[in-house]
Amino acid sequence: QVQLVESGGGLVQAGGSLRLSCAASGRTFSNYGMGWFRQAPGKEREFVAAISWSGRSTYYADSVKGRFTISRDYGKNTVYLQMNSLRPEDTAVYSCAAPKNEFILPDQTNRVFYWGQGTQVTVSS
């Protein structure tokens, strides 16, 4: 059974940093693109960042470019999201995402098959 488990969320002041982790189990995701999405209260879930199966390509929402960095550790089957210069508008539940098939980049919700349970990130002003 595939599981994606996020950790690293919390409360931080504006301008601060957090590092989210997504540990995958039940399958090796070496040949899978991985991604992060977020959902703020009263808003739709939105794409944040994705990394290709090779790790050579990364993609970001305009709102986080230059502040967030996605990376992956193949040996640990884990994906990370380093978030710097956080803003109150970054407050949301952040979820890890993976596709059903190899080589697919989960940069849209309709390409996601596996979701993590989410971790809360709250940025105070």
Describe the overall structure.
- The structure is a single chain.
- With 125 residues, the protein is mainly beta.
- Helices cover 0% and strands 47% of the residues.
- The protein has strands at residues 3-7, 10-13, 18-25, 34-39, 46-51, 58-60, 68-73, 78-83, 92-98, 114-115, 119-124.
- The strands form two sheets. Strands 2, 4, 5, 6, 9, 10 and 11 form a seven-stranded mixed β-sheet that branches.
- It is globular.
- 34% of the residues are buried.
- The mean pLDDT is 97.
Tally of separate helices = 0
| Rg value | 13 Å
**Overall 3D shape:** globular
Distance between the termini: 40 Å
Average residue pLDDT? 97
Task: Name the structural class.
Answer: mainly beta
Number of strands: 11
Low-pLDDT windows of residues: none
Strand content: over 45%
The largest sheet is: 7 strands, mixed
How much helicity do the residues have? under 10%
User: What order do the helices and strands follow?
Assistant: EEEEEEEEEEE
